[in-house]
Design a protein that fits this description.
Radius of gyration: 29 Å
Helix content: 10-25%
Oligomer: single chain
Strand content: 35-45%
Number of strands: 45
Structural class: mainly beta
Shape: globular
Distance between the termini: 60 Å
Number of helices: 17
Largest sheet: 22 strands, antiparallel, barrel
Amino acid sequence: MKFYICLLSLFFVSGHLVTGTSPLYEEIKSLEEEDSKKLYLEKTDREPAKDTTIPILEGKQITPIEKTSETSLEEASRTLADEDVEKIKVTGSRIKRIDMEGPSPVTIFNKEDLEHSGYSSVGDFLRDTTVTHFGVSREEAGSPASGESDLSIKGEASLILINGMRVVEDPHSNTVDLNLIPIFAVERIEVLKDGGSALYGSDAVGGVINFITKKDFDSNMFYALVAPTLQPKAKLKGLGFAGGSRGDLATVFGSSSDKWSYISSFQLRFQDRVENYERSWTDKTISPTGPYPVFGSSPAIGCPENLKITGGCKFNVADYSTRLPQHLQFNSYFQGEYKLGEHSLYTQLIANYKNVKWDYAPVPGRLSIPDGHKMSQYTSLAGILRYRFIEAGQRETTYNTFVSDLTVGSRGYISNTWDYDFSVKLAHTWKNDTQAGLLLKKELADSILEGLYDPFNEEKRDLSKAKYQAKAKNSSFLLFSSLDLSGETGFWDTEVATGLQFYNKNYKNRADKEAKAGNILSNAGSDGDGKRSVVSYYLEGIKRFGEMLEFQVAGRADYYSDFGLTSNPKFAFRFQPSSNLLVRGSVSTAFIAPGLNLLNQSVGQGYPGIYDTLACYNELKATGKFQDIANTLEDKESVDKLMEDFLIDQRATYNKASKNTKTVLKKLSQSLKDTEYCKYRQYYAEFEGNKKLKETKAMVASLGSHFQMTEEHSFTIDLWYIRKSGIPSSGLGKVTAAELKLGSSAVKEEGITIDRDPSNKYNAIADKATPSIKTKLLNIGKTEKSGLDFVWNSALKDFNKGTPYLKNMLSYILFSKGEAFPGLGFIDTIGEFGFPAWRNISSIGWKDDKHNISLTAFITAPFAKKVSQLDNLNMYSRFDLDYQFVMNEKTSFNFGWSNLLFSEPPLDKDDELNQMDSDIFEPRGPFIFAGVKYIL
């Protein structure tokens, strides 16, 4: 109901807003034919020897999209008012059009925005926009996806394209690594902020990001960039600044003629590692397992008094682990086209090599010590020994990844009004990883039994027999073919596009032989194989009623060999009552096909951070910390229910409580960080994929309006809504809350097993060698959210021989809620840790032919802590200064300072596992950059 009220409100407001066709369109219409030709060539840079830059302000909705066919200069000179001209393709539609505005909201970032930012990866650039409200994942250490970066629009799965074509996915993460995108060859980035599955297939729930590379580029460009960090070390280990500095070398060259054109780019990218101990926000990551032996729930033997906790000893793994890995990457890109009259042959090749290195703390483990075994003076202790084998040294991990992505195709005209595009893609990814510093279980047990190793005796610490280096390999292969047709029909003056696509994809993961045998005292991977074939058909139609009204209808059917048929329609409209007012809206369904890694992953092990809601509840009840609440309630029997609701959803329970109860709940929230089982703790878990997973389904709707006051002043407002169900989840995040509210039987019915310690008075998750939690992926998650996007652009041309400008982008979430476990109910997620209600980015600057300087403010709304959820982290502001100097037509320089005021990101210091959300905030700290571009 909230959604429909918002839609009606926005529709009413949008009547007072303005947007419209491109000013270029209106300008050309009023010109004579010869002047039209001159202006067309000038505005679109159609002459082959020129760069095809079309200056667009950041976030502007007018969309000069790639041309999909070539025409003669005589054809290009025809006036738009009277004759046909070359049509263009707009992201969000497969039908080429004359005008640049369609029914879908598309945001443009051009090459000037990319170069001015000082970033060398598109992931870093897009993280600093409101398009990705909840951030962009970084190349963080600690998982098979280390060294990768992926993004989402509105926090939802989003499709990545290069020149309208899909890109190969990583076999581990099942996402596109943004580091594959050749940023220095990118002309512009087009962001469709609308559901796109009806046209593009899986993953386009939040939208589509299309990277358009340079066309008709006829020069050689060289680029160099250095970006040293300015962050002082949190703990002095050596001199100088903390790690995280980066550098880039790149070249782009191309040539073109009437018959052919090509462009190539090469990039060498290096980023220094960031160690956890070097940053104040990561220098404390506490684990209960340290280099002090623990038997069962007994106190850790030898643990200092100030570090003792129940059943363990505090150990700071941050002193031994990496936050951002060392990253060395070589990326190459080639695109070529050869024209044969009305047809052309084209090819696109991406080749990438990446080397990623990072360290993690010495391996922790659990061993079963037999009765009667003499282990130094502790002859009476038998059972489960828990210990971190610090003598084995750090776990050193290296990933080497190779990617090749080749597309060949042909496009052209098959009649005066119909064109075609046929392409075939072959893509392959190989990934090899090596993990040193591991221990073999059997050999370790033998070393203990033989007296070679004794954790209680410093003179007997020989692990040479048990130390091991594990190796694993995985790969993915994609064969994709597509035939697209578009043109005009004789039926009701409609335009249509239709296409047939086929692809075959397989995935192989080969874990180390000792890992498969279960003989490694750590999570060293698991096997997983899978393959699928997909056949897809789509149909799109557009009907225009003059220049004022346009309707779009699209539908797509995809048949997956592993889970069956899915179909997705889309309906959209564009209403343009005047030359500067546009109202648009759409409703569609979308889907996400389960990744092959999710379907086919075999059993793996790990130590995820889990909040044991049931044990927390029992401890609070047993220790009397909830007794104060009983004194504030008239209905004493409500206490247990209030405790339960509060632990499952603190903020919602607090907001509904009476004034007196709120006071007590606030105190209770503070006390949770001092309550042992109310903290996030690492528990041993086994998890696996599920071959019975189905697709995730979504309903997506939007309504927006664009006001183009003048060519230099515009603003856009878009309201959106997404409802999603069948989200794959292991349930680990809320499974213990489900135990508390629904009972253990409800958890078991879903196939999840939780092993609790009956001897523990709080019935906590068991701390033993057998699996504490055993789960698999299930289609159990649901979400619902709505938000508002606002973009403002202003500029004053020819003001004091320059152009002052102002840009503002705001992303505001109206509501967001999710159900992580069936029957648990929807929980409001906005304002939780890592989910700010809004983000705003404002830039003020001035530019002329030689200079472009801007000051940008990044402001993020406050959000709650993880543990003490009623305590909010402060609103965060960061200020960046960027300056670009054009020396001459060949040479330009870029300088910048990120985080001028050395602002520290908001930290949840009560969370001993993860204090900062690095998807939104910069874990490297402040840095400066300097870049030079030279065109030969």
